[in-house]
Amino acid sequence: MESTFVTIIEIIGTMAFAISGIRLASAKKFDWFGAYVVGLATAIGGGTLRDVLLALPVFWMQDSIYLVVTALSLLFVICFGKYLIRLQHTFFIFDTIGLALFVVVGIQKTLMTGYPFWVAIIMGTITGAFGGIIRDILINEEPLIFRKDIYAMACIVGGIFYWLSHTAGLNSVATQSISAFTVIVIRIMAVQYHWSLPALKAEEEYKSLSNSKDI
């Protein structure tokens, strides 16, 4: 039952992330194949790295459903792309849903292999965020995770809430739901209230050092 629930979450997350990647690829005028590749990389990138690090069989090589879901996501964007464009924050919505669900999947799969919670939180963050890094590289954008935007930190906090819920004795469905909800809320609140991590001031420091050398 628990394994089935994780699989369902993974499929929903795959569709959400694939749509987010395909939407950005369409904005860059990619053709259908290019958009599919971007959507697929977004959807499976984090999970692939997670499985490699955990020495597990790579999940999408065991079941073609993830390739099919990405193809259906592409078809969805092709058919309803004009309506999606009209909706505000479409990319943000799908990306946030995918991020939250994949964090839960990453944590759950790591715990099933016997690793401690701190490893599970890291793997949950990788599962949620790494696909977005690949997506941004493919479309020639600065990866979202490296900007001031609250992204990876939302994954980490979601992982901490997973641990707290588990420690409190809640069942797996409630624990996973709380973790995913936490990630979504943090992402929405961060955008709504412009929360961000401090940026490094290295450029200004280099300028001041350069000026002092000139003197």
Short overview:
With 215 residues, this protein is mostly helical. It has helices at 2-27, 32-53, 59-62, 65-86, 90-112, 117-138, 152-167, 172-192, 202-214.
Task: Summarize the structure in words.
The protein is mainly alpha-helical and 215 residues long. Helix content is 79%, strand content 0%. The protein has helices at residues 2-27, 32-53, 59-62, 65-86, 90-112, 117-138, 152-167, 172-192, 202-214. Helix 5 (90-112) runs antiparallel to helix 6 and helix 5 (90-112) packs antiparallel against helix 8. The radius of gyration is 19 Å and the shape is globular. The mean pLDDT is 86.
List the helices and strands and how they pair.
Layout: H1 2-27, H2 32-53, H3 59-62, H4 65-86, H5 90-112, H6 117-138, H7 152-167, H8 172-192, H9 202-214
Quick tags:
single chain; 215 residues; mainly alpha; 9 helices; globular
What overall form do the CA principal axes indicate? globular
Quick check: average pLDDT?
Answer: 86
How many strand elements?
0
Structural class: mainly alpha
- Distance linking N and C termini: 71 Å
What count of helical segments does DSSP give?
9
* Uncertain stretches: none
Q: How large is the radius of gyration?
A: 19 Å
Q: What is the percent of helical residues?
A: over 70%
Element-level helix/strand string: HHHHHHHHH
Proportion in β-strands? under 5%
Largest sheet: none
